[in-house]
Amino acid sequence: MKERGLKTTAQRDDIARVFFSEGGHRSVEELYAAVKKVNARVGYATVYRTLKLLKETGLAAERRFDDGQARYEPSEERAQHHDHIICERCGKIVEFNSEELERQQERIARFLGFVVSRHRMELYGICSDCREGKRGAPAKPRGIQQL
Amino acid sequence: MKERGLKTTAQRDDIARVFFSEGGHRSVEELYAAVKKVNARVGYATVYRTLKLLKETGLAAERRFDDGQARYEPSEERAQHHDHIICERCGKIVEFNSEELERQQERIARFLGFVVSRHRMELYGICSDCREGKRGAPAKPRGIQQL
DNA sequence: GTCAGTGCAAAAGATTTGCATGCGA
DNA sequence: TCGCATGCAAATCTTTTGCACTGAC
Q: CA–CA separation, A55 vs A53, rounded Å?
């Protein structure tokens, strides 16, 4: 699973297993809690160190939304590239992808003389469930919306 | 200049003066240093507090790029809305605006059932100066590029 | 004269790091 | 066995806050 020059240890295995099975956009705190349940012998620092490792080897992508803490998700090498739209009321995060938008960005960058290596694009607003006054946990994300 | 219900004090005046005259995307640290030169009697906390005030009254906009610290720029009430493209080599930040891109985002959000309140869009790449091997300070930004 | 605004230092929250120890290759 | 990986706590970094004091209105 992680033969990219990484030594295998019990904690790395457990962290990686939890990380890739849960998917989603997990904060370090959430991941730490989840890993703890599987292996109580894991320290906070190791979770940070492992996540950084996964990021450096390209297996994980780091996201920073506006809540002040980093979140990680399985890299786009394994999932398709996508952006995020976030509900400011219930916190729901929906992933989407738009070819049109990508082309657009590429065009803009080229015009300004840049070669783009990556981008970050987040939309913030209120989702329909919240506008309609529905309560309770947000609906489970349904994967990447193609547009 | 700041009659939005704000009491005027020497430090606020100085901070606001520096902030609005320098413009750009200044980190708190940079602003603090700049204000210090004008008025040594200003504390770090006051810069933070004043910036937060300016943000809340809509006079300043907070930006968080990928370098871990907040940056502020005069609000879009006074300047036009724009996004950013950032050179990962020299740190140059170019502002741009694209009606097309805005429409695009609006369309996507609507399709997903969201009403957008704000968005965040940053492109990261290498600028032409850097690709051509030019050294030295990045060229002064030339305002918002219309696309 | 009041009370909001300020400075300083301490607190907080997120993340990193030093160091002695443990465990995989 | 050897050295990287780990745990824990301490250190960093950025931002916030408590508190006594100052200055604006």
A: 5
**What's the rounded Cα separation, in Å, for the pair A27 and A25?**
7
Q: B44 is written with which tokens?
A: 């770090």
- CA A132 to CA A124: how far, in whole Å? 17
User: CA neighbours within 13 Å on the CB side: how many for A56?
Assistant: 9
Q: Is the CB of A48 under 7 A from strand C?
A: yes
Q: Which residue of A has its CA nearest to B116?
A: A125
The gap between A101 CA and D6 C1' (Å) is 44
The Cα–Cα gap between B23 and A57 comes to: 38
Quick one: residue A36, left, alpha or beta (phi over 0 = left, psi -120 to 50 = alpha)?
Answer: alpha
Q: How far apart are CA A22 and CA A48, in angstroms?
A: 17
Whole-number Å distance, CA B106 to C1' C20? Answer: 56
Alpha-helix runs per DSSP H in chain A: 10-22, 28-38, 44-56, 99-111, 128-131
Q: What is the pLDDT along chain A (147 residues), one digit of tens a residue?
A: 666 667 889 999 999 999 998 878 899 999 999 999 999 999 999 999 999 999 988 889 999 988 889 999 998 766 688 999 998 888 888 999 999 999 999 999 999 999 998 899 999 999 999 888 776 656 666 788 887
Q: Which nucleotides of D are covered by protein (CB under 7 A)?
A: 4-9, 13-18, 23-25
Nearest-angstrom CA–CA distance, A18 and A25: 12
pTM higher than 0.85: no
**Would strands B115-126 and B83-87 be described as parallel, antiparallel, or unpaired?**
parallel
